[in-house]
Amino acid sequence: DMTKSMVKPKNILLTLKEHNANSSTTMKQVYYARYAYRSSTRDNNTEMRQLMKLLEQDQYIHWHKLKDEDVVRDIFRSHPNAVKLTNACNLVFLVNSTYKTNIYRLPLLDIVGVTLTGMTFSTAFAYLVGEHINNVVWALEWFRGIFLRRDVIPQVIVIDKDAALMNAVKTVLFESTNLLCQFHIDKNVKAKCKTLVGQKNTWDYVMEA
Fold first, then answer.
1. Burial grade of 92 (CB within 10 A; 0-12, 13-18, 19 or more)
2. What phi and psi values does residue 199 have, to the nearest 5 degrees?
3. What is the model's pTM?
4. Mean pLDDT of all residues in the chain?
5. Is 71 helix (H, G, I), strand (E, B) or coil?
6. What are phi and psi of 192, to 5 degrees?
7. 48-52: long-range contacts at Cβ-Cβ below 8 A with a sequence spacing of 24 or more?
8. What's the pLDDT tens digit per position in 47-86?
9. Strand, helix or coil at 7?
10. Which contacts (CB < 8 Å, 24+ apart) does range 114-121 have?
11. Burial of 138: CB neighbours in 10 Å, binned 0-12, 13-18, 19+
């Protein structure tokens, strides 16, 4: 019931222990039970067919690429409410790719918008079969496609220094201003410059600057 209500695993375990102090349930068992429940709701559908079914059911805007007519290679999705926000707040977008941290070992391209009050919202996600420029270009073309007006484009795109992503932005969103993420700049400075500075008070001064 808690899984169905989108309760996080750690909170499920905490609730079980609160209701039964002698419970010996472990986090691993919670994950297994959640997996078994979700598998039972799929009937005989594969995970991909179930995903497609849910995307249609919740009216997501989505596109995918096929290999040999039956294997999904790349998939792009955006929620209808996210599309509305994207068109209303189209000034700044952050684009980043997580590197194979999911169970499918695939890159996940995450596009995040920024509202006029500085809040962020998820615009779209794309699972990509590889971190190649043609895969990223495909995803960014669909991202551009969710704008309702052809003359409206993102004013600023913020990315990390990923070569494929940088080249894809130049290809698809060449009118936008492309900035590098300050977080990644700071991270690179910390990784590469600390041994060159030496004294701690000097290093603190450098990091403040």
1. buried
2. -65, 145
3. 0.72
4. 87
5. strand
6. -110, -20
7. 48/72, 51/75
8. 788 888 888 888 999 998 887 777 788 899 999 999 999 9
9. coil
10. 114/89, 115/85, 115/89, 116/89, 116/91, 120/94, 121/82, 121/85, 121/89
11. buried
